[in-house]
From TrEMBL:
PANTHER family: ISOCHORISMATASE HYDROLASE, PEROXYUREIDOACRYLATE/UREIDOACRYLATE AMIDOHYDROLASE-RELATED
Lineage: Bacteria, Bacillati, Actinomycetota, Actinomycetes, Kitasatosporales
CDD domains linked: cysteine_hydrolases
Protein name: Isochorismatase family cysteine hydrolase
Annotated SUPFAM superfamilies: Isochorismatase-like hydrolases (SSF52499)
Organism superkingdom: Bacteria
Keywords from the named record: Hydrolase
MF-aspect GO terms: hydrolase activity
Domain (Isochorismatase-like): residue spans on this chain: 4-179
C-alpha cells in the first residue's frame, strides 16, 4: 500500500483558462500524474464546488462572495469540471472542497487516513491559494509534504517564487516534476 499520494488541486477548466497563458503547465502536470500512477501512488483530485445557489458561501467571505453572485463553480457549471487533460481515472479519488484549503469543507482527511496516507505531494492552481492553504493545514496535521514547484501555478510569478523558494521549504521539500519523477523511477 502506498503511503503517499499526489494531490492535483483546483485544476478545473475555468481556473486553467485564467492562469495557464503559455500552455505548458498541463503537460508538465500530466507527467507528474503519469509518474505517480506508474509508481502506484494514489492520485487525488481536489476541486472547489458548491451546491446550486451557493448556500455554503457567506456574503462576508471576501474570496467566495463574488463567486456566489456569478453562479460559478455550482453544480452543472462546465467551468468547474476538472480539466480534461488531467481528467481523473476511475481509480482516482475526487474530493470537493468548499473553501481555499483542500481540507476545508471536504472529506480529504478521512480519505487520507482511511488509505494510510501520511505523505502528500502538492500540485495545483494557485500557489498562493489552494497550495499555500493546503500546505499549512497539512503541516499542522503532521503530513510529510513535498511541493512540485513547476506543477503549481500563480497569477503573480514573484509570489510563486517567494512561496516556493522561501516559505514552503520551511514545511516541505520543494522540487520539480522532473526531479520528483526521476526519484520515483529509482
Amino acid at each position: 500500500m502506498a503511503t503517499s499520494a499526489l494531490l492535483v488541486m483546483d485544476v478545473q477548466r475555468s481556473i486553467v483558462e485564467r492562469f495557464d497563458r503559455d500552455g505548458d503547465y498541463l503537460p508538465r502536470l500530466r507527467g507528474a500524474i503519469d509518474a505517480a500512477r506508474a509508481a502506484g501512488l494514489p492520485v487525488i483530485h481536489v476541486a472547489v464546488g458548491f451546491r446550486t445557489g451557493h448556500p455554503e458561501v457567506s456574503a462576508r467571505n471576501a474570496s467566495f462572495g463574488r463567486i456566489a453572485t456569478s453562479g460559478a463553480f455550482a453544480e452543472g457549471d462546465p467551468g468547474a469540471a476538472i480539466h480534461p487533460d488531467v481528467a481523473p481515472r476511475p481509480e482516482d479519488v475526487v474530493v470537493t472542497k468548499r473553501r481555499v484549503s483542500a481540507f476545508a469543507g471536504s472529506d480529504l482527511d478521512v480519505v487520507l487516513r482511511a488509505g494510510g496516507i501520511h505523505g502528500l505531494v502538492l500540485t495545483g492552481i494557485a500557489t498562493s491559494g489552494v497550495v499555500l492553504s493546503t500546505l499549512r493545514q497539512a503541516a499542522d496535521l503532521d503530513f510529510d509534504l513535498t511541493v512540485l514547484a513547476d506543477a503549481c501555478l500563480d497569477d503573480d510569478p514573484e509570489v510563486h517564487r517567494v512561496l516556493t523558494e522561501k516559505v514552503f521549504p520551511r514545511q516541505a521539500r520543494v522540487t520539480t516534476v522532473e526531479e520528483w519523477t526521476t526519484t520515483l523511477a529509482r
